[in-house]
Amino acid sequence: MWNSKRAIIHLDMDAYFASVEQQTNPWLKGKPIAVSGRGKRAVIATASYEAREYGISAGMTIYEARKLCPDILIVEGNQNKYIYTTLRVRDILLKYTDQVELYSIDEFFLDITNSQMIFGSPELIVKKVKDKVQEATGLSCSCGLSMNKLMAKLASKMNKPDGLTIIYPEKVPEILKELPIDKLHGIGHKTKLRLNYLGIEKASQLAEAPTDLLNTHFGIWGHILKSMGKGIDSSPVQYYWQQDQIKSISHSYTLPFDTSHIGIIRSYILMLCQRVAARLQREGKSASTIALVIRYRDFETFSRRKTVGYFVNTIHGIYFVCLKILEEIGELAKPVRLLGVSATSLADDSRQLCLLEIIQKEREFNKVVESINNRYGEFTIKPASVMFAERFEKLQGNWGWMNSYLGRIC
């Protein structure tokens, strides 16, 4: 019997990208598949449960996955397909409450506290929600029900896939008693190591730890950690209409080969600027802060950002800022594996800019490029300098003319 003031559901889609691919292509059902980006160096975003039996997991390269399972089927991800399915799921959830928080593309929080008068007990509602999602999409999900977001998320992870777990308030101390601290959402690997150093390995130990000790090592975060150890979380589930404001737009890309060649690096930055500009213009936004992310061959990653005194949302406007950042970074220490460009500090786009013919033409060009890429795959259309760069590792001969060429087209 439910005896809590709040009733929160966490819904987690199972092996989401892979499940969507299997659902839309029946030939893939029951087979080990992995969803990844394009290129031989692309990493796996998710794997079907058939593939996970071989030890395949997100973050692996395709080469590593094939070593574990030679028969694995690699499917190139389709972002639009997943977003469409996510919106379908969200529409189903909104029939039960308007407090539906899209936590990630495959996760939702629902506050059903005020839905009980219409749909029945929380136990009945969570079952209805789970069954309705599977019936409408053909996809399975795992649901957790508890009195707050922290415990609901913990519950949803307990019986994956296709699970339904309820953590009643009176059961919380018993569950947390032997629970490893890193099972609590929000405690990552580094925080776990720091807590372990203090002799804290279980949630119950975290709950009993002196507040002064935690505050000394974690600052204001120490008080929050102690509450988490007790299963306390007062954070609200946002209403769906509170999440419409976009705070940043970013895009990243794993290069087909590691390189220190500045011309090639600029080529891929230009390609990423094209994608970010297209998304900014589609959303009617401009940005005053641009960030450049660089990941080296050894996976060391860093970012640099630059705030300018004006708003940009065109390819070359963003690219100009990125080149300034690159210039400030100076010589790169190691070969680069991944690049990323992000736009933040967003504001509604000024429609007066459309009076400039060159900007209007670029926007029309972006619309055409994005339409083709959405239909035939990401980066089907790309800058000529990128196409040249992708063949760079295979070319032999005079590097001087290559440098000159890349310098002109970047």
Radius of gyration: 24 Å
Strand arrangement within the widest β-sheet reads 5-6-1-7-8
The CATH architecture of the largest domain comes to 2-Layer Sandwich
- What is the count of β-strands? 12
Order of helices and strands: EHEEHHEHEEHHEHEHHHHHEHEEHEHHH
Q: Roughly what is the average pLDDT, rounded to an integer?
A: 85
C-alpha geometry: globular
The CATH topology of the largest domain comes to Alpha-Beta Plaits
- Helix-and-strand structural type: alpha+beta
CATH homologous superfamily heading of the largest domain = Reverse transcriptase/Diguanylate cyclase domain
- The total tally of domains equals 3
In what range is the share of β-strand residues?
A: 15-25%
Percent range of helical residues? 40-55%
Main beta sheet strand tally, sense and closure: 5 strands, mixed
Number of helices: 17
CATH class of the largest domain: Alpha Beta
Query: Poorly predicted ranges (pLDDT <50, ≥5 residues)?
Result: 350-359, 393-410
How is this fold's topology laid out?
Layout: E1 8-13, H1 16-24, E2 33-36, E3 44-47, H2 49-52, H3 62-68, E4 73-76, H4 79-93, E5 100-104, E6 107-111, H5 116-119, H6 122-137, E7 141-146, H7 149-156, E8 164-166, H8 172-177, H9 189-197, H10 203-208, H11 211-218, H12 221-229, E9 249-259, H13 262-283, E10 285-296, E11 301-312, H14 315-329, E12 336-348, H15 357-376, H16 384-390, H17 399-409
Parallel strand pairs: 2-4, 7-8
Antiparallel strand pairs: 1-6, 1-7, 2-3, 5-6, 9-12, 10-11, 10-12
